[in-house]
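Fold this sequence, please.
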Amino acid sequence: MATDKLLETISFDSNGLVPAIAQQHDSGEILMMAWMNVDSIRETLETGRVCYWSRSRQSLWRKGETSGQVQSLKELRVDCDGDTLLLQVDQAGVACHTGRRSCFFRAVRNDEVVTIAEQLVDPADLYSK
């Protein structure tokens, strides 16, 4: 029942998707942005393990399914317009497929784009499981 009420507050786009920002619950670090649909939201709330919608594969994407870098949901929040979700998570390992903790590892500084976070894990090791 609570899940149905939550889904009523979300404004999905024409593809049935809503952007979701994953944030480390205890540090506030922004980890990544991905897409969710009704099924991925339901699964996430039912299991406590974050599940997204993969636009490239057109299927559910259970974070960490192949890499082991699982996100456990601590809290799901909906913004004021209902068109963006904030997932407060406990991230096991790295969040980014590049082997970095966060997908936001580049910044503009002094008119240059610079890398501000180095790889922690070789991506080949992430997806060899």
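The domain at 2-93 is CATH 3.10.20.810 (Ubiquitin-like (UB roll)). The chain has a mean pLDDT of 95.
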